[in-house]
Design brief:
single chain, alpha+beta, Nuclear Transport Factor 2, Chain: A, seven-stranded mixed sheet, 8 helices, 7 strands, 27% strand, globular
Length: 172
């Protein structure tokens, strides 16, 4: 996360350190290690990475545009969306099943999707949303047969700290 915030959003290490509960020097070291991992091979092959990236990109485009039909086209019929409560407006369910319900909930979050950036999350295409230099949440995806089978919206600080974020190949 330190690498993405610093290199992608130009957030100073001194501001990132308190978010991660570490010193500025330790945060700088985390970013350095992440830069090395960016150039390491992805956990999935290039063809699978490209296919998953296309699905996540289509999801993001449809969410940004509020296009319910396009969202339904990219979501598997039995898709499951889970989310940390901190990532959702009050009253929204943390677990939603089925393409229609998930798509409708995604449309509600349309404004937040405009702040999203495609990244690698634990070696697979995902999204990070940063607001005023601070990570708001990360979205991880499970893609099967060219569609989103599940996605998880992570906003809990402990869960966020456990995610490895990196730039997608070709985005450096």
């Amino acid at each position: 996360m330190a690498f993405v915030l610093h290199d992608l959003f130009a957030v100073p290490f001194a501001e990132i350190a308190p978010m991660l509960g570490r010193s500025a020097a330790a945060t700088k070291k985390l970013a350095s290690r992440a830069r090395l991992r960016v150039h390491a091979p992805a956990r999935i092959g290039p063809a699978e990475l490209a296919a998953q990236r296309a699905v996540v990109s289509a999801f993001l485009k449809a969410a940004r545009e509020g296009d319910l039909d396009e969202l339904l086209a990219v979501l598997a019929p039995e898709v499951v969306r889970s989310a940390d409560p901190a990532a959702l407006p009050p009253g929204m369910a943390t677990l939603v099943r089925g393409a229609a319900a998930v798509a409708e909930g995604t449309i509600v979050l349309r404004q937040r999707s405009r702040e999203a950036v495609l990244v690698l999350v634990d070696g697979r295409p995902g999204l990070v949303v940063v607001l005023r230099g601070r990570p708001l949440f990360v979205v991880t995806f499970t893609v099967r047969a060219g569609r989103v089978a599940a996605y998880d919206v992570v906003a809990d600080p402990d869960r966020l700290a456990g995610l490895a974020l990196a730039l997608l190949p070709g985005d450096q």
